[in-house]
């Protein structure tokens, strides 16, 4: 009970409160979805790098590739991409990995725009409720010709209630938006730094194992140069009317 009314009746009496309720449900759904995504895709970069280095050194690339395929996170996908393209040059592998990191960042930041929009919209909707409540209060004063508490209390109560409800939605949603945005940026930086270290390790392994080394072809006898044909004057094309290219 709020102001002597059931909570459901308060929402039904105010369209703005209904919109705020829908915004709160949408914001909660987005927060839960992002929490689940980041939880499923978390990883330990230092531990993963040590593990893949140990497997490459002790058991070879195939064992490291089989282990990387069991990882269901961005770091495992980077390891798989690099090890599957081991025969390419270091620059080509780096380009592939950094393009994959950009794709992973897009996944990290997915739905964050909607979360930030809901945070701002909830606060503005609360302000809109304040304005409409005050309009109703002054409308009641104009209709009755008096300004007693019974006349203006309903409009002012609606104004304060929508403002409070909008802030209750907007403030936590804004905190969640900032948290997920910072986490997406930090995770991308961790992936980039781990990729740099992994590429250094991979290049040292390729040099030691001779993977991707180019064999120079045996020198062949230089054929005698063919006689140059006598140059003939090139025919001059006739100029056509109009544009010349």
UniProtKB/TrEMBL annotation:
Record field: compositional bias (Pro residues)? 220-236
Q: Where is the MotA/TolQ/ExbB proton channel domain?
A: 88-192
Q: Which cell locations does it reside in? A: Cell membrane; Membrane
What Gene Ontology terms describe where this protein resides (cellular component)? plasma membrane
**Primary location recorded for the protein, binned into one broad class:** membrane
Identify the keywords attached in UniProt to this record, alphabetized.
Cell membrane, Membrane, Protein transport, Transmembrane, Transmembrane helix, Transport
Tell me the InterPro entries matching this sequence: ExbB/TolQ_transport, MotA_ExbB_proton_chnl
* Region entry Disordered, spans: 211-245
Q: Which GO BP terms apply?
A: protein import
Q: Name one Pfam family in it.
A: MotA_ExbB
- Membrane topology qualifier: Multi-pass membrane protein
Membrane spanning residue stretches: 16-37, 111-139, 159-180
> What PANTHER family does the database record attribute to this sequence?
BIOPOLYMER TRANSPORT PROTEIN EXBB, PROTEIN TOLQ
Similarity comment? Belongs to the exbB/tolQ family.
Q: What protein does this entry describe?
A: MotA/TolQ/ExbB proton channel family protein
